[in-house]
Amino acid sequence: MLSIVHSCALKGVDAVDIAVEVNSGERGDLKFVIVGLPDAAIKESYDRIFSALLNSGYQIPSTRTTVNLAPSYIRKEGSFYDLPIALGVVQSTGQCLLSHMGEFVIAGELGLSGKIRGIKGGLAFALQAKKESKKLLLPVESAKEAAFVDGVEIFAVGTLNEAVKFLSGQINPSPVPHQNFPLEPKNGKHHLDFSEVKGQHVLRRAVEVAVAGGHNILMMGPPGAGKSMVAKRIPSIMSPPTFDEFLDTMRIYSAAGLLIAEGRAYFERPFRSPHHTISGAGLLGGGSVPCPGEISLAHNGVLFLDEIAEFRRTTLESLRQPLEDGEVTISRSSGKFKFPCNTMIVGAMNPCPCGYLGDKNHHCKCSFADVQRYRSKISGPMIDRFDIQIGVPAVRIEDMQSKMFAESSAEIKSRVEEAAKIQEKRFKSSKNKNNARMSQREITEFCELTREPLDILERAMKQLALSARAYDKILRVSRTIADLEGEEKISTTHVLEAIQYRSLDRGYSD
Ligand SMILES: Nc1ncnc2c1ncn2[C@@H]1O[C@H](COP(=O)(O)OP(=O)(O)O)[C@@H](O)[C@H]1O
Ligand SMILES: [Mg+2]
After folding, report:
1. Residue-range domain boundaries for the chain
2. From the CB of 224, is ligand 1 less than 6 Å away?
3. pTM of the full predicted structure?
């Protein structure tokens, strides 16, 4: 007898339909065959499924049985289909009629005892089940994250036995209630605040502008200047995401299996800071069934690359295209996988190997060649990707000794939020959501300059030998500076400030 169970596979961050067909009672040798699963996981599936069936009091097929996971061209993770296959076997071998099975999308990994284990992608599966107007049957952990999606009936099961009883109508559990994303993590919010950062007015301002418009920012300065300190406080001044933005980011976490593991599903933009030893695949995404990398986990938020010159050059270079496109594309024989990365990059580095070039209080021991070698770890085109580049001097002694608290994160955040509102209105009908990602057409429309600022920009272009990309970036940053002041027109002072933020284009020499 043939049984068909609806399930899903993850393709990138989206779920696609998979039909699990189980046919038992075929003529021929006694054999259990699974087709459509190219994963090495296939062999392990047999063992888990048979053991779970036996330990749950069911029989394993005594006739030839074929399992087909269709369509076969989609690459699948073996463990997702343990539960649908086991259920298919129970029904197709006539052990129990699962009359409600057709109403559900089902996925889950089985333990040898018949216990059901969590899988990644629960959120995407819920979105897909909603689209298909089906109910969803998932392991308990996965159901918790699926329950963030409204408008779909989700049921959680702990064991194979429970699933059989439920689908055959012997028990009638209530659906998992829909839940909203919590506003704070379980152990309270971070308490890092900008009021602790003394002096460094230029850096504080540059970071505010960067966060307000979503601009990539590169900080270069001696050790102990407060670069890492400031970067770690960025989450405290970011505007909250919209619900759709947040759901989009959480879909990526879910596809990476992190939502369950990290318990980090609270309503905030992501801030990721991978160590510089990270691999290209870790940063961009990879694997035989591709999984999102750090740049996508920071989607709609910030990726902080501390000590950026220490990252492998090839790893950094591979970020260039995704930064431009706002998505990572990974090609596999089974097709292209896309992961969004509308991500703001924050980079921090020392100016030279010893760290003290340009520091008035320390003697720099590096030769010219040392400095050149160090700087060449980041290519010109990569530096060009940073809209805001800023030299950070050492903290002044007077500032460090001051007992005064600087402006708090809350005050900065209120200005950032105002600028975010202006951008939300501006880009209402656009795919892009912030100034940093304005298209060429949008730059023409929203960054028109009057004579005086235009003259200044043209002069700066010539004198500083800026690239065409730098020209656009100056316009985008000028737009954000004007927005922070609530000004509709970009003025000369706005453009002048934005030009200041191209310090590395000119070579950082002081
Ligand atoms: N502007 C500052 N105000 C207050 N403390 C600072 C400042 N800059 C640095 N510090 C202190 O020095 C420590 C090291 O700073 P850090 O941000 O790690 O420097 P960097 O990343 O530039 O090398 C910080 O943890 C903080 O205690
Ligand atoms: Mg640091």
Report:
1. 2-167, 194-430
2. yes
3. 0.88
